[in-house]
Structures are given as structure tokens and as C-alpha cells.
Write a structure and sequence with these properties.
Rossmann fold; alpha/beta; 248 residues; 40% helix; 2 domains; 8 strands
């Protein structure tokens, strides 16, 4: 954005977020001197809000019942009324899946020596699963690409959006960055299942994972069981559980 001139010196970064991308943008804004305004559903964890404010971002909370759609609409309103503002728009920015083509996909392929049989991934913006799937499917067409979404909000599966507590996935709409043609299936995970698996990861594996990571691991284990013994299934643990301590 700086190179293209979309974001100028003394400009303002505006972005809707459920937390993680917003935290990254707030970090960048702090180091490069930009004003940063982030819109977020008021159902997101207290820890995420505190981190954003600590980095100096201005936080605008939107009704949780409106989900990310509400935060996106509010961000657009702010952009329309703020001179010199720029919205990265993580849900539609092609740089999102592209960085996963260049990095995440290469790491997954290298770490498994190309032996993976399935890639299971939670869908927030759609960038990770699209970028990884696009690369790996060209190298191994037999691989299964499985999206993970909240069972309470099964939009990718053709259902309707409802509130849920698996923060970071299940935006309530199909993002532009999600290439559904790359998907071989969708696993639905309930909030209860995600929280239970998160607790298991912490207490049995020592991995302090977040809620959406619990959903992804739950789905990955289900896929692995369905594929049978000897199959290699890869998933992504998206973030740290320290951002959800207030949620139990």
C-alpha cells in the first residue's frame, strides 16, 4: 500500500477485524507512525481488545449480532468519512492468499516432503486455505482440502449465519478470498467441540491454542479417522490461547 501510494505518510489504516489481523496492523501502525482505527464485534475477547488499545489503535465496537459484516460496514463508513484513509480489506485483498502461496504452502509441502493426504483449515478470510490449496493441488491432485466452519453458522455449507463463539472463523459470509472450487469438503464444528478440543490441546499436549485452533484440530482428527491409518493430515493452529483466557 505504501509502494502503490494507497497509504501515504500520516495516513490512517482502517480495518474490520475479529482480532488477529487487527493486532498485526496495530503493530505495524505503531512502528510506522500511522493512525489505526479498527472495527470489531463487541463479542470478541477482552484480551484482544486490550492488545489493540495497548498498541495505540482506536477501537470501534459494533453489535455482536451483526458479526464481521457489521464491522465491515462500519469500517467502510469510517473510510468514506476519513481523508487519507486506507482499508487493507483482508477478506478481499489478493495479497492475503498470495502470501500463503509463497510461504505457508511451501512450508507445509517441505515439512511433509509432499506426503500429506489432506489439508484441514479453519476459514476466516479464506486466505490461508486458498493460498495453500492452490499450490499443493497443482503438485498433488489427490490431496483433500477441507474447510472448517462453525456448525452454528454453516455458510460455506449453504446454511445461514448465526452467532457463535469460535472467534476468528465463520465470518457469516463467503469471503472473496475463499476459492470454493478448491474445496473437497467442509467440516462443521460446534462451539462446544472447539472449546473441548482447545482444553485437550492445552492439558494433554501442552499447546496453548486458541478457540479456532481447537475447531481445526477437532476437524482434522475426524478427517484422519475417516481416511484411515497411514494417512497424513495437516492443519493449522492459528493463534495463542492467551487471547481467550477470559472466556474459560
Amino acid at each position: 500500500a505504501e509502494k502503490s501510494g494507497q497509504l501515504k505518510r500520516d495516513g490512517t489504516i482502517v480495518e474490520p477485524t475479529s482480532g488477529n489481523t487487527g493486532i498485526a496492523l496495530a503493530m505495524v501502525a505503531a512502528t510506522r507512525g500511522y493512525r489505526c482505527i479498527l472495527t470489531m464485534p463487541d463479542t470478541m475477547s477482552v484480551e484482544r481488545r486490550q492488545l489493540l488499545i495497548l498498541y495505540g489503535a482506536e477501537l470501534v465496537l459494533t453489535p455482536g449480532s451483526e458479526g464481521i459484516k457489521g464491522a465491515l460496514a462500519k469500517a467502510q463508513e469510517i473510510v468514506d468519512n476519513t481523508a487519507g484513509s486506507f482499508m487493507p480489506q483482508q477478506f478481499a485483498n489478493p495479497a492475503n492468499p498470495e502470501i500463503h502461496r509463497q510461504t505457508t504452502a511451501q512450508e507445509v509441502w517441505s515439512a511433509t516432503d509432499g506426503r500429506l493426504d489432506a489439508f484441514v483449515c479453519g476459514v476466516g478470510t479464506g486466505g490461508t486455505i486458498t493460498g495453500v490449496a492452490d499450490v499443493i493441488k497443482k503438485r498433488k491432485d489427490s490431496i483433500k482440502i477441507i474447510a472448517v466452519e462453525p456448525s452454528e453458522s454453516p455458510v460455506i455449507s449453504g446454511g445461514s449465519h448465526s452467532p457463535h463463539k469460535i472467534q476468528g472463523i465463520g465470518a457469516g459470509f463467503i469471503p472473496d478470498n475463499l476459492d470454493v472450487d478448491l474445496l473437497d469438503g467442509v467440516e462443521q464444528v460446534s462451539t462446544e467441540q472447539a472449546f473441548a478440543m482447545r482444553k485437550r490441546l492445552i492439558q494433554e499436549e501442552g499447546i496453548l491454542a486458541g478457540i479456532s485452533s481447537g475447531a481445526s484440530v477437532f476437524a482434522a482428527l475426524k478427517v484422519a479417522k475417516e481416511l484411515g491409518q497411514g494417512k497424513l493430515v495437516v492443519t493449522i493452529i492459528h493463534d495463542t490461547g492467551e487471547r481467550y483466557l477470559s472466556m474459560g
